[in-house]
């Protein structure tokens, strides 16, 4: 069996799906790596060759590989170049890439989406969303610290005491918890909010204060641990209470990470809330790619509104490509090994790992939401 590692072509994407150190775990298979696939992440072609991979041009890889590994969803051109009936493993986001899904169906490609990995205990080492979110949360705080015109930690000097910065993290998922930990390590006073009641214990375990809003949140979490979409009335009240909290606590930095899988990110910070912040304060909105948690967010841009810097960086894991690639490679190789037996693929659709991530197979669309969207289009 031939496994191919494709070079990413999306602008700004520096990660690679498989790093050289992971190749030793693949037994009884041949690995093809596209020329230059790992260079942007710091992994030279020679490093792959030393581990037994064969470096080839893109056309050869696409035409020969039985399994193709990627980070970003494939382009139309990449899908058309895939061998008929091949397997693809990557982030896919079916609802945002219906055209690609249609072409995968035409090529009878079996496509497995890493973002759909079920949240079960044995899949923790395969959870690519979590591994990449850890880096996003870390980098978000560093960006805020670099932009904020004051120190994060308290400092006692001969000229007087400098008080610590106050950081508010909205959304206590993996990215939010990483942001809390880094902000605390930098010496800031950290508070956090999450719509899921279970997050309170996790926030407090990191020595941050949990901010409770007077909302009914018993039904705010899915069985998989994700935030669940709420009603418009809920979000309106949440916005009002959030604005009051932001105004009364005088935060220097707000890091937002709140998202709902398959939905637009909830808008939690209104323009009035921004107006209530001190001049020079910073908002880092990590939900920009899903529309943003702040109504003034401009995805991919840094803007100043009412004296507040609003940053909306996209694809932060790519800015730390070597380690992000190592983590993703661990996720994808563990997933792949769970499906390999004696050098051949064993796709057991009774296995939650397979059934939960499989989007297309043999020309059949298995993702119900994408199927409905295609039928409407």
Report what the structure shows.
This protein is an alpha/beta fold and 377 residues long. The chain has helices spanning 45-50, 58-64, 76-81, 98-106, 128-147, 174-185, 199-205, 232-249, 271-275, 321-339, 352-357, 368-376, and strands at residues 2-5, 30-34, 54-56, 67-69, 87-90, 110-113, 155-157, 160-162, 166-170, 189-193, 209-210, 253-256, 282-285, 302-305, 308-311, 340-341, 344-345, 358-361, 364-365. Strands 3-2-1-4-5-6-18-19 form an eight-stranded mixed beta sheet. It has a seven-stranded mixed beta sheet with strand order 11-10-9-12-13-15-14, with helices on one face. Strands 7-8 form a two-stranded antiparallel sheet. Helix 6 (174-185) links the parallel strand 9 and strand 10 (189-193). The longest helix is centred in the middle third of the chain and has 20 residues, at 128-147.
Order of the strands making up the biggest sheet = 3-2-1-4-5-6-18-19
**Count of alpha/pi helices:** 12
Overall pLDDT: 93
Largest sheet: 8 strands, mixed
How would you describe the shape?
globular
Number of strands: 19
User: Which spans have pLDDT < 50 for at least 5 consecutive residues?
Assistant: none
- Indicate the percent of residues in helices: 25-40%
User: How far from one another are the termini?
Assistant: 37 Å
The gyration radius over C-alpha positions equals: 22 Å
Strand content: 15-25%
Secondary structure category: alpha/beta
């Amino acid at each position: 069996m031939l496994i191919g590692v494709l070079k990413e072509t999306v602008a700004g994407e520096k990660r690679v799906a498989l790093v050289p150190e992971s190749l030793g775990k693949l037994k009884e298979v041949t690995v093809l790596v596209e020329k230059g696939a790992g260079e942007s992440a710091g992994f030279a072609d020679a490093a792959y060759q030393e581990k037994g991979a064969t470096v080839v041009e893109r056309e050869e890889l696409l035409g020969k590989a039985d399994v193709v590994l990627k980070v970003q969803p494939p382009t139309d051109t990449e899908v058309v170049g895939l061998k008929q009936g091949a397997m693809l493993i990557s982030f896919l986001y079916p609802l945002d890439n219906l055209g690609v899904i249609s072409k995968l169906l035409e090529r009878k490609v079996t496509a497995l989406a890493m973002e759909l990995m079920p949240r079960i205990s044995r899949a923790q080492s395969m959870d690519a969303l979590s591994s990449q979110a850890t880096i996003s949360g870390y980098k978000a705080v560093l960006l805020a610290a670099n932009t904020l015109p004051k120190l994060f930690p308290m400092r006692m000097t001969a000229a007087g005491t400098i008080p610590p910065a106050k950081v508010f993290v909205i959304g206590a998922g993996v990215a939010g918890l990483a942001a809390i930990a880094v902000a605390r390590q930098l010496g800031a006073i950290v508070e956090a909010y999450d719509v899921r009641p279970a997050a309170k214990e996790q926030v407090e375990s990191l020595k941050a204060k949990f901010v409770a809003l007077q909302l009914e949140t018993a039904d705010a979490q899915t069985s998989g641990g994700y935030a669940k979409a709420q009603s418009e009335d809920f979000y309106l009240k949440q916005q009002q209470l959030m604005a009051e909290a932001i105004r009364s606590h005088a935060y220097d930095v707000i890091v937002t990470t709140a998202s709902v899988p398959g939905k637009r990110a909830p808008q939690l910070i209104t323009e009035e809330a921004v107006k209530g912040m001190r001049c020079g304060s910073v908002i880092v909105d990590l939900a920009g790619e899903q529309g943003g948690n702040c109504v003034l967010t401009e995805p991919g841009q840094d803007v100043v509104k009412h004296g507040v810097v609003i940053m909306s960086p996209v694809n932060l894991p790519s800015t730390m490509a070597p380690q992000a690639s190592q983590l993703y490679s661990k996720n994808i190789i563990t997933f792949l090994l769970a499906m390999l037996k004696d050098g051949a693929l064993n796709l057991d659709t009774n296995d939650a790992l397979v059934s939960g991530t499989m989007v297309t197979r043999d020309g059949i669309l298995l993702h119900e939401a994408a199927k409905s969207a295609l039928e409407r289009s």
